[in-house]
Amino acid sequence: MKIFVAFYSKSGTTKRVAEEIAGVLTKKKHAVKLHEIVPVENLKAARYPKDGKGIRLAEPILELASFDFVFVGTPVWGFCPASPTLTFLRQLKGVKGKPFALFSTCTGLPGTTIKRMANILATKGAKIGESLTVKSIFELDRDAVNSIRKFAENALLKVP
Ligand SMILES: Cc1cc2nc3c(=O)[nH]c(=O)nc-3n(C[C@H](O)[C@H](O)[C@H](O)COP(=O)(O)O)c2cc1C
């Protein structure tokens, strides 16, 4: 399958999870495109508009038509997806009918992060499947890495 793995990461944890997912899927012979969501202006988290409106992304409006499956990952900010992730999800094209798996990283209180991501995508006609929340207080240990691998594999087995 052609798989798109998009993530936003301010301090590297979500990036680490995204790379783990991409690594597992590449080993399974899928063609994976890893995409980092990059705001043009690199601000402190609290300086971005919370609803993601007005944030300019370095590579705006991506088209998913050529991909079979999409992963999107985000850090949790204030129990919600990080604002650049919201910008990205709103701009994304070719979402209709596409299967998605969602992941987040947080220190322990994910709030409605996955639900909010799913809602934005569902209104664009996405099919939402598996999701994973990784707690990031400690370095990713072996259990966390195993759960990420299992998530990546299961997401494709249970294509929504
Ligand atoms: C502005 C801000 C708000 C945050 N809000 C939450 C939160 O509501 N719940 C939580 O569990 N962690 C929260 N965190 C912690 C991050 O979600 C966590 O450290 C995450 O793994 C960071 O991902 P990154 O390294 O990919 O940027 C917050 C961090 C920042 C910077």
How are the elements arranged and paired?
Blueprint: E1 2-7, H1 13-27, E2 31-36, E3 69-77, E4 80-81, H2 83-91, E5 99-106, H3 113-123, E6 127-135, H4 142-157
Parallel strand pairs: 1-2, 1-3, 3-5, 5-6
Antiparallel strand pairs: 3-4
Helix pairs in contact: 1-4
The protein binds flavin mononucleotide.
Which cofactors or ions or other ligands sit in this model?
flavin mononucleotide
* Average pLDDT rating: 95
Radius of gyration: 14 Å
Q: Alpha-carbon distance between the termini?
A: 15 Å
What is the number of beta strands?
A: 6
CATH homologous superfamily name of the domain at 51-75 and 86-160?
Flavodoxin domain
- Shape designation: globular
| Major sheet characteristics | 6 strands, mixed
Name the helix and strand elements from N-terminus to C-terminus, one letter apiece: EHEEEHEHEH
**Residue share in helix:** 25-40%
**Assigned CATH architecture of the domain at 51-75 and 86-160:** 3-Layer(aba) Sandwich
Structural class: alpha/beta
Q: Could you name the CATH topology of the domain at 51-75 and 86-160?
A: Rossmann fold
CATH class of the domain at 51-75 and 86-160: Alpha Beta
- Poorly predicted runs are none
Strand content: 25-35%
> Count of helical segments?
4
